[in-house]
Design a protein that fits this description.
There is one protein chain. By secondary structure, the chain is mostly beta strands. It has one domain (2-115): Beta Complex (Metal Binding Protein, Guanine Nucleotide Exchange Factor, Chain A), CATH 2.170.150.70. The chain has one helix and eleven strands; from the N terminus they run βββαββββββββ. The strands form two sheets. It has an eight-stranded mixed beta sheet with strand order 6-7-8-9-4-3-10-11. Strands 1-2-5 form a three-stranded antiparallel beta sheet, with no helix packed on it. A hairpin with a 2-residue loop joins strand 6 (58-64) and strand 7. It is globular, with a radius of gyration of 15 Å.
């Protein structure tokens, strides 16, 4: 059982399963929503994700027509998001976990959109970016 919470502790959740993937998203929306160079996200089946306290504190924001982001209305901590394309999944913010995850990130997403001050340079696979031209 994995446990997570917001900064003020008002929102708490549990995951009755394992995290199997962690992606680092560099898109401008994730950077703005997290206030950092990238957001560390992990997909979790909706059936394994349970809010155990503070559901009344959760607020959502439609960052696009296809995505809702949930956060604590007291402290502002991002908790999870849901995409219309994958209604059976929530994408939790790994930084809000209180339990050890036991795995490392396994990919970057939209690294081409990274902040100009971000020094990310590693060998993880990169998705969402155009293929380099053969010119």
């Amino acid at each position: 059982m994995l446990k997570g919470s917001c900064l003020c502790g008002g929102v708490r959740y549990e995951i009755d399963g394992e995290i199997t993937r962690i992606g680092l998203c560099h898109c401008s929306m994730c950077r703005k929503a997290s206030g950092t160079a990238f957001a560390a996200n992990a997909p979790v089946s909706q059936e394994h994700f349970h809010i155990v306290a503070g559901e009344d504190l959760l607020r959502s924001y439609a960052s696009s027509e296809a995505k809702q982001r949930w956060f604590c209305s007291n402290c502002g901590s991002p908790i999870y998001s849901r995409s219309n394309a994958y209604p059976h999944l929530v994408r939790i913010r790994v930084g809000a976990l209180d339990s050890p995850v036991g795995i490392k990130p396994d990919y970057h997403y939209l690294l081409s959109e990274k902040a100009d001050w971000d020094t990310t340079d590693d060998a993880l696979p990169r998705f969402g970016d155009p293929e380099p031209s053969a010119d």
